[in-house]
């Protein structure tokens, strides 16, 4: 049902069998520097895509183009089937955007902001007020509702900004780094709101620099760097590219290491002679048990055991080819192990 | 634990037809409704910034008191040969124009504020005509300036201003003042669109303050050195002041009325499309 948009006063029914958010070959240059170099995106109705990328990758530019705020040089984009370039008004009716920087009126109060926007969506006076009340309540802004936004904290502003983009309950929402600058509690709360939106059938494109956020929230993740999508898939798929879970064991003596190596006898074994460590891929708890059982057959003593799971950080650093902030990683951080695995593969 | 921050609805206030992407309607009725909402916003901005109200009302009143009581005695004698009236009657129309221009300058700051903060992006993401945002500021400026002007006239009457105008002449004077305010407001909008920061936009205030000094507002141009005299005679503020002065105090108007209208309309015709184009350019990149 949500795929079909019926416009009042027109007999046209626009079936949108394609994705709720669709972009292909988006190009954008500022002066001479190409900022987007052929971005392809598809977000199915009712799902969430996280657009992950470092500073300056082109996340904000992409979101601003898709939400009609910025003209673009090439490619095409549709929102709920409406062409971003040719039908901006229709696009604006079906989407809401929470930009990277707050777009609320500092002079007005939180409530006045929401009512004003509701009225500009033509909700009618009473309906706009009721909707503002609900959102203020939902975003825990009731106490501050009648204070000028100028006096709000950064987190309150972000919440109000998100509330503002939800007023007309749009089926498509863009969130540009919605949790940047929020404390852990507010971030959790924001995540809850975002999950609630997806649960109610909203299509969301969210940008983030927080790899964990993409992992936690999104159905799919697209990694953007230098204006290109360099990877696209579920968080699990992306992690697969880097490697699976690995079990890592440390030993006190070279002899122990050698004995363990023989005992395990598997192919995918990483041995670090100097650090007296070895690691092997494990597909789940059963395989962990198998490895430990095999070790139990020989008289070796492991001094440390660690199960490391590749994180999106690994994906990120792997794909963008950036240097890791934690250096060469001689000590066993979970990430370092995963990267070794990827290098070997 | 998160429940303390985010509350879930007990009753659903989500707009019924939002998901369908349609709105109750478009057209003139909604255009008027949008305009009203944004004019209300503009007025709230005015009411919530006491310093701008003080600048646009208190400053002109202080200037008026200063000219009447401090310089008045000295000036009255000096201008008697060209303007044989009580100085208070001579100066009040000028102060009225000064007030009008002063308040309009605040529009520049408001517009720059909107353009340089994210607010404009919020409006642009809505299915409304964006220029209505500017309209909101323009109408608020008109309201603010006419209110300030009324206050200034009130104080003027208290300190001895004795207008001789009939009801019709008052109406014509108010019309002339409104036209002037409209012109100044649109010039102010243009400055606001050109300026990159609110501080830059406030520079416009100085320009506005300067114009009435070198006009017939405080002293007749005939008493000025020849270069200034020439400028004062041929700048837009002078014919407007002469028109308002003539309507309120019965001095000869001559062709000032036509000149005043020509200046105001001419500047509006020039400035409005430029502002429109600049606004479009600044909202699409
Ligand atoms: N108006 C502009 N004029 C010139 N260059 C711009 C403009 N806007 C963005 N850029 C450039 O485009 C590139 C991408 O910017 P964008 O804001 O999309 O990055 P981002 O991925 O959102 O980064 P961040 O994580 O820092 O928000 C940057 O190099 C930026 O300098
Ligand atoms: Mg950004």
TrEMBL record, chain B:
The chain crosses the membrane at residues 53-71, 91-111, 132-159, 171-194, 201-219, 257-279. It comes from Phytoactinopolyspora halophila. The keyword Transport applies. It is found in: Cell membrane; Membrane. This is Transport permease protein. Signal peptide: none annotated. Residues 1-26 are annotated as: Disordered. Residues 1-17 have a biased composition (Basic and acidic residues).
